[in-house]
């Protein structure tokens, strides 16, 4: 089968590799229908050391179950499924708490053992916990594929930010970052009833989609100027909730600059720093709550499938380019050059 | 009147100063019945530079209203009142959110303008918002005074930690610190229904009171050893909620060491640091929430008065020494030497 591998910074290739096989009775093999490239795939694309074996790429897919191990009971051959970006048993105490990314028996794709999901076929461990069936869907419902695929990661990562930030009716929400996760966070905030949604971003084509998703205001300025603008838009009081979808220190600093006393900063941009201000002058003095982390998207998938199927939400609009798996290397290059927001892969 | 002033590290004196007077029509003058010394008063006691004018001390009192300004409507001469440690209008948007310590028109005691509350008489600004009447109480109900006084700061600071940490039935709570705030946090966690309450502290006389307040386990070890002990007590999974009542970096590090995936660290110990770990390896990777700040005790007072009057809670047990205002300097010395946990002042 074909699969995308990265061999070093800027070097993605489609390889012919052996088909995956059932290794544990809880595995399933899934034939990919759509996969995609994640903003997080760009981190190694910038900095990876050369590796002659290559690293299997991708962690988002929708597809059709090809084969199941003997202990798999919730999905069977022919089912249309969504695979969350991490696998999990959905039964351990952390999964029961709703934090599947910390599943005691789960893990992440992209290792030699699990492979990546930018591939024609994938082995999904703990299939009963990891795969979510989309009932009644066929391979002809192509219009629905992009939005269903976002339930594998990007939309529900934005949703996780909004959920952890306790976004609710009447709240003012500021979203930092106009990437695909930031725009997803806008849509999620709208879904959860936010009254005012301020999107901080400076790429007009992206912030336009943000407005379509529900942003009431766009602030292109950054740093102190951006903070001043958000304060102005919130009567000088700041934003009840800040959804931080970038992960760099300036975005963190902007977050505590715009958040209201007693408010929440919810991060889903993976922090590219370990230490940050949390003392009296930043978080403590104003009773600010800092929350967020890797999104346990598994817990949010079921409730969002009907919204996609009914057309209530259309988070798949974050895909602004579609290529075949063979052209995935060009897709990486386009996202890296910011010519594409997020690239869909037809497999 | 007599009032406590600090003139430098270790130098507290009782001074004869002019009686406070009504300066704004929203002021009230209160005659102190009981005041006390706070753990936070020990910070300047350790480090204050000499000041020939001295700084007025204290921010906790219960007392009797002596006089009110022309615009004061909710309290009048003769009322028995509790004064929260900060004054606030109780009407601005931040007060309505429940964050009175950030009141737009409020502030803190201990400046030359406001004076301190370790004094025979005090001027309370914004009396309608700041003072809470205790109906039916007289100066003879001395047994109730210690617990009522804790509603001015210490008990409700512990309560704020538990409230912000979303302590509820069935949760495991770890309290870091066996000072008066930590013990108050134990009592608050018990009140909010925590199932298991682990108190980290190593002063037996204090942790004994912690057990009386509801601690189910006491961990005397610190650092890695202490973390290992708490993990052992929680089936290896960690504590749903950590209430951090110390404010030093080792307590912060202990907090993220013992907190469960998806759990909450709630801080009320004023951080003696500005930067701290918050990245993937500390908070983000495990979806940890960090919350807390200066306690807006005003918002919690009314609901707790009946519990004190009925004897449901007795947070005043944190006072293990009582002296007169004249002997306040000895009270400071006793707390500083850890001979006393918290000192009550009869005024």
TrEMBL record, chains A, B:
Pfam name, any one: ADH_N
What SUPFAM superfamilies does UniProt report for this protein, alphabetically?
GroES-like, NAD(P)-binding Rossmann-fold domains
GO MF term list: oxidoreductase activity; zinc ion binding
Please name the PROSITE patterns in this protein's record: ADH_ZINC (PS00059)
Using the record's annotation, list all stretches that form the Alcohol dehydrogenase-like C-terminal domain.
180-292
Q: Which cofactor(s) are needed, names only?
A: Zn(2+)
InterPro entries with a match to the protein in the record: ADH-like_C, ADH-like_N, ADH_Zn_CS, GroES-like_sf, NAD(P)-bd_dom_sf
**Domain of life assignment:** Bacteria
Q: Which UniProt keywords apply?
A: Metal-binding, Oxidoreductase, Zinc
Domain Alcohol dehydrogenase-like N-terminal: where? Answer: 25-135
Question: What family name appears in the similarity comment?
Answer: Belongs to the zinc-containing alcohol dehydrogenase family.
**PANTHER family the UniProt entry points to:** DEHYDROGENASE, ZINC-CONTAINING, PUTATIVE (AFU_ORTHOLOGUE AFUA_2G02810)-RELATED, ZINC-TYPE ALCOHOL DEHYDROGENASE-LIKE
Q: What is this protein called?
A: IMP dehydrogenase
* Species annotation: Litorihabitans aurantiacus
**What broad taxonomic lineage does this protein's source fall under?**
Bacteria, Bacillati, Actinomycetota, Actinomycetes, Micrococcales
């Amino acid at each position: 089968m074909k699969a995308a591998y990265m061999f070093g910074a800027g070097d993605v290739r489609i390889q012919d590799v052996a088909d995956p096989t059932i290794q544990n009775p809880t595995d399933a093999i899934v034939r990919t229908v759509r996969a995609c490239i994640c903003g997080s795939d760009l981190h190694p694309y910038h900095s990876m050391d050369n590796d002659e074996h290559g690293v299997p790429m991708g962690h988002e897919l929708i597809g059709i179950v090809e084969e199941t191990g003997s202990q798999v009971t919730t999905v069977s051959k022919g089912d249309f499924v969504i695979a969350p970006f991490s696998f999990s048993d959905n039964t351990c105490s952390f999964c029961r708490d709703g934090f599947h990314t910390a599943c005691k028996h789960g893990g992440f794709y992209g290792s030699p053992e699990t492979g990546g999901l930018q591939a024609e076929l994938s082995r999904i461990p703990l299939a009963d916990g990891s795969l979510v069936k989309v009932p009644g869907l066929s391979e002809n419902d192509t219009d629905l594929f992009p939005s269903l695929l976002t339930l594998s990661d990007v939309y529900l990562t934005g949703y996780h930010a909004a959920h952890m930030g306790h976004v609710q009716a009447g709240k003012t929400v500021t979203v930092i970052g106009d990437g695909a996760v930031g725009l997803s966070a806008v849509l999620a905030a709208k879904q959860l009833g936010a009254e005012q949604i301020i999107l901080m971003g400076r790429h007009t084509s992206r912030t336009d989609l943000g407005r379509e998703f529900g942003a009431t205001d766009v602030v292109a300025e950054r740093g102190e100027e951006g903070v001043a603008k958000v304060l102005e838009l919130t009567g000088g009081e700041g934003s009840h909730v800040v959804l931080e979808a970038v992960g760099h220190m300036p975005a963190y600093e902007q977050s505590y600059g715009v958040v209201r006393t007693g408010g929440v900063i919810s991060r889903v941009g993976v922090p590219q720093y370990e230490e940050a201000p949390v003392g009296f002058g930043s978080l403590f003095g104003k009773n600010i709550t800092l929350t967020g982390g890797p999104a346990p998207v598994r817990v949010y998938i079921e409730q969002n499938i009907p919204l996609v199927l009914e057309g209530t939400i259309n988070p798949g609009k974050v895909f602004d380019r579609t290529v075949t798996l063979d052209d995935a290397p060009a897709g990486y290059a386009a996202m890296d050059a910011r010519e594409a927001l997020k690239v869909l892969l037809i497999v």
